[in-house]
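Re-run with default settings, no changes from the original entry. Doing this only to confirm the output is reproducible before filing.
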Amino acid sequence: MVSDDGLTVATEDDSIFPKLPEDQVDSVRAYGKVERLEPGQILYSRGTTDFDFYLVLDGTIDIYQDGSPGDSPQDRIITVYTGGQFTGELSLLNRQKSLVEAVAREECTVIRLRPSQLRRLIANEPKPARVILRAFILRRLRYIRMGLGTVLLAGPAASSDMLRIRSFLERNDYPVRQVSPGDPDSDEVLGDYGVDSTVRWPLVICKPGSFMQNPTTSEIAACLGLRETISDVGTVDVAVVGAGPAGLAAAVYAASEGLSTVVCESTAPGGQAGTSSMIENYLGFPLGISGHDLAARAQVQARKFGARIALPRTVEKIDCSRSPYLLRLSDGEVLAARTVVVATGAHYRRLDLPELPRFEGNGVHYAATALEGSFCVDEDVFVVGGANSAGQAAVFLSQSAAHVHILVRAQALSSSMSQYLLTRIEASPKISVHPRSEITELRGDEHLKAVRWRDSLSGDMKVSPTSSAFLMLGAVPNTGWLDGSLETDAKGFIRVGADVSDTSGFPPGRLPSGMESSVPGVFAVGDVRSGSVKRVASAVGEGSMVVSAVHLALADMG
């Protein structure tokens, strides 16, 4: 079978390890340099951050994974590249550490591209770019399945810190293997690293010979090379704060239109939407798409056009007193930007229960992905909330849980819930809706064991055993870091356009544009904007639309 990009595709391997046709090889040649490699020459090793792209013209390049003691080099080979094939996967595009090692088996002729040259190729040459990007994405998925470059995570399976670390790694598409004390092979595995009973769980082992005890996500990112520096970017045209659907859309459109773009994200791409197990009403995906997959594709798309996505990088403060604006990050770095798009979204409201902090991550969850769902197999679980996120969680969890109980304070499920979710919930014998109900107490020791809840219709107070409660209540804007720099409404959402009451910061005769805040050149899109529609498609639309206003603001600045 021949695809429309001219690439012969017969099997999955042909998409993962394709051979470029001659015309596409010529396109690549224009961006790089032809070199000769010596037999045994190491092109890059596992853990290398600054490595290049190689397209083989003749000869053979072997790709190796880490091996076990006693493995021969042949045992460690995972694939071989010959004429027309190329090295690399998403780590190369993302400026992350390589998961594998590449070695010339024999004398080879290659076209070598530095990462900056590869990015120009991808931006300017759609035919080879499509083949290369598809291969990069599929290779990363294969590496995850194979556990290549795997981080070893060790500790009690249900602890909140284990969940925090594993969620961070999986949402950033990094291979992870988990072992728990007492597992059949854990003593042997952990003994190799000198682990004893005095350690502070969980442990993260990301390179041979050492381990970290209950590290922060920033420490893990630094060890794995996930952390991207921004010290070399200078002043950018647009800084996007937040990599949810709105922020990623803004990054894609800004970068594709030639604006220098940096995105700062504190955890992982996708935002709150990234934790949705399945979005079925997003245009163009008739079979549905998970929030994580949508965010992963958008991230690759933004990088394709040259956007820098710096994570995990938390913006702690914005200085609007000067131009360019300054974004101060938690690690002390400062990003200067001529315009800023705030896309920090919102988070779910927390229950006003004194025992809540003790159970967060230990049975109380604010996301319903496959990771959280793995704790709910054959269990009764509770979902609190009445909007789409709660409905999506209930439908997803009902696939593995014994029963899902939805508690809503209103008389019925929210009018804002999509009809397809209402239909699924009503049709499922494994989902019950309890209107006019709320949790009044969480019970357990180290982990949630039961919830006490009030049924206001009957007046009954009930206690139900459960190990998992999913709280998806309302929307609280992530605007605390602004510290009053931008005008907000009574709930903390950013006012824009005609809703801005104080326009004194604007030049005479100029008013805020549709998504512009009370500060010229600073915009708000997505869930963080006052009056926004809390839908993924709406957020993507706003992120796309704001770029035209960014252009006008930049022109106004001169």
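Confidence is low (pLDDT under 50) at residues 1-11. The radius of gyration is 25 Å.
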